[in-house]
Records
---
Amino acid sequence: METLWKVSNLWKIYEVKGEFKKEKIYALKKINLEIFKGEIFGLVGESGSGKTTLGKALIRLIEIDKGNIWFKNIEITKLSEKELRKYRKKFQIIFQDPYKSLNPRLPCGYTIMEGMEGSKKEKLEKAFEILNMIGIKKERFYDYPHQFSGGERQRIAIGRALSTEPEFIVCDEPTSNLDVSIQGQILNLFLDLKEKFNLTYLFITHNLKIIKFLADRVGVMLNGEIVEIGKTEEIFENPKHPYTQKLLESEI
């Protein structure tokens, strides 16, 4: 399989002020990872394990302290912000809370158009096409985020991510704030869009049922490290690491 992302010995360290001196918090340590083109790679672990930090570090929303990241054989850790700009449209992120991530003063149609290139007419046509794909009526083009439900706002966030024609999307707990019935609709939308655009996902969640349904492979995180990686069915049927075993037992 073609490797889309490769991560080698990745570290992210934060310094916080302790009682007498600064203390180091190792948000990520010794991360080695490959994500293959066209797969859904699930990332699971308890809160604070480093899942979101890894997702952001991968696409350089935060800078790392040590290690190397390759996107399609290009080492992006050594690129300047100017050099990185031409790759940025190829990877996007969808956050947990769409209400916080959407501009409250921007109508949903213009939110989707924001990252597009081309004439105004071309952008409008593409925005209407995306609205149709994500299940939002074109008549709501000028509606603002507060006028939509939680599930609809997440659809708009997905539409915004699609607007730059990415190859890869980090999905950071994108269904955790939604009702169970709406979760299913959004997950099916992710699958439909993956097939339509040959997308690759890093899907971050604490919900093992979602990972079992969605992911091709799984990485299990604990205290900033990936302690186990494998195909989804292998991880669920025969977990090797004690933490993975406890995580699965907690879902029974």
---
Amino acid sequence: MFKGILLGIVLGFVLVFVGAYFYFASGQAPVTTNSPEMPFERKVAKLALHAYLGKVPHANPPVPVDETNLLAGAKVYKENCAVCHGLPGEPHNAIGDGMFPKPPLLFRGVGVTDDETWESYTKVSGGIRMTGMPGFKDRLSDTQMWQVSVLVKNADKLLPSVKAELAPPPGTVAPAAAAAPAKAADSDHDHVH
């Protein structure tokens, strides 16, 4: 009887593996950013991210939350993050709008101000698989990653000088924010968080 149960379990695993392989190999899995989600895609991504975040050190930022670090974080943000996550008061651009899942607009609504700074640092440093979020560990210094993490943690209470640093460059015309304000607001909470 034990052999029959064991054989049934092994056969079950083999069938699941073969089914998953067929799903991907036959072209059934959605691969474009405008395709519907795969079954359990968002749930699996969140589960993996939260389990990983539970294992990483919950360090306090080594940089103080002051004007100097917020301004430095704003500069890093504009150069590296704004292309996907936008600037204050602006909707997604073509890059952010074409991603799946859409990256959150970090200066609209809650953004990631509800995340702890160490959590944002971990995401900035290592990126997030299955979201398009790149890791910046090899591109930015530790201090720069902490500065931008402190910035997004405090995105809802920025000093006027920091808001000015985050303003779009002079002479640029912001895309029509009225085109899809409800859609942009809805998508802000669709990120893996």
